[in-house]
Amino acid sequence: MALWRAYQRALAAHPWKVQVLTAGSLMGLGDIISQQLVERRGLQEHQRGRTLTMVSLGCGFVDYPDALITNYYLWPAVQLANFYLVPLHYRLAVVQCVAVIWNSYLSWKAHRL
């Protein structure tokens, strides 16, 4: 909980910087999950440049129609549930958790052979 409180303080003090770093971190985490859990590359075959590219993008658009369609199904449902069911102080955490899953999907979709 101390880490979460530190994050909230940093977010209040430097919202733009923290959000940019958060987005990049979530994209990188999504790529790591994609490579290690979905593609099962292992640490020796992990493409570090790919992860760095995803971190650098921070957020991005994958030009696949089904990814875009999935986006339009996923995020409205997440936000509807988030706004109606989740207390205010947990909403950011819910969105960030879903973002990690979404970024894993985008990374897998963008880099599958």
From TrEMBL:
Q: Name one GO molecular function term.
A: channel activity
InterPro entries reported for this sequence: Mpv17_PMP22
Which UniProt keywords are listed?
Answer: Membrane, Transmembrane, Transmembrane helix
A cellular component term, taken from the record's GO annotations: membrane
Keyword Magnesium on entry: no
Gene Ontology BP term (one): regulation of mitochondrial DNA metabolic process
Where, per UniProt, does this protein localize?
Answer: Membrane
- Principal localization? membrane
Q: Which family does it belong to?
A: Belongs to the peroxisomal membrane protein PXMP2/4 family.
Q: What is this protein called?
A: Mitochondrial inner membrane protein Mpv17
**What is the protein's species of origin?**
Nomascus leucogenys
